[in-house]
Amino acid sequence: MMFLARRILLLVLMTLSEFLETDERHFVALEYYWLILNRTYLVLLANQEIIGLKVGGAIAVEAGRDPLTRTITSNLAVKGDLKNPYSYIKSSYAAKYLDTPLNSADILSLDKSNFAVPYREIQQITFDPTSKWGMGVYPHTGKIYISTSAGKKIELIILGNQSIKQVYQRVVKAAKL
User: Fold this and answer.
1) Which residue among 27, 66, 82, 117 has the highest number of C-beta atoms inside a 10 angstrom radius?
2) What is the per-residue pLDDT for 70?
3) DSSP 88
4) What's the rounded mean pLDDT across residues 73-81?
5) Whole-number Å distance between alpha carbons of 70 and 86
């Protein structure tokens, strides 16, 4: 009992950087938003809720013959090892979260796209291992769908070489479904 109370207290006081160092209950995913205004999330499986922190915006493939198009797409392209899900996290987005306590409403208010869904509101979690249309050269292993009692549906595209089945199992276990 003392161990559980200590663990809960630790999570309440824990910052994002500490959570990521000590716990593997997180993954990186993309959400399609308004067709091309994609959002990249660091998704945390906290004790009472699933939390999505926006750590990247729209992405594109470097392309185009004219200099303007090449410049724009170059700025939106993900750099680095595309199989590594952490390559999709932009440091300029993620830095603002590192010293904010996870239990704080402040962490959600740091970006209007952040979300938190209490596990008690989740009705169903499913996954689809097929490719998402429009992802181009960006490797992904499928999609996880979360449906809430309020009728909200969240589609998370699992980026890089993360196992869709393992991510799905971790989300289901955390939500106790």
Assistant:
1) 27
2) 72
3) G
4) 76
5) 24
CA distances from 74 to 11, 71, 95 (A): 39, 5, 22
Contact 84, 160 (CB under 8 A): yes
Identify the CA nearest to 102 among candidates 173, 55, 63, 53: 53
Residue with the bigger pLDDT between 60 and 123: it is: 123
Residue type, 90: K
| Structural domains of the chain, ranges and CATH numbers in brackets | 2-175 (2.30.29.30)
* Token pair 């909200």: residue: 152
Q: Of 12, 20, 45, which is closest to residue 146 (Cα–Cα)?
A: 45
Compute the average pLDDT of residues 15-39. Answer: 78
Does residue 73 sit in helix, strand or coil? helix
Single pTM value for the model: 0.84
Q: Which two tokens stand for residue 104?
A: 């704080």
**DSSP strands (E only) in the chain:** 26-31, 39-45, 49-56, 115-118, 122-128, 140-148, 153-159
Measured in whole angstroms, the distance separating CA 15 from the mean position of its chain's CA atoms is: 17
Angle at the Cα of 44 from the Cα atoms of 38 and 50, rounded to 5 degrees: 90
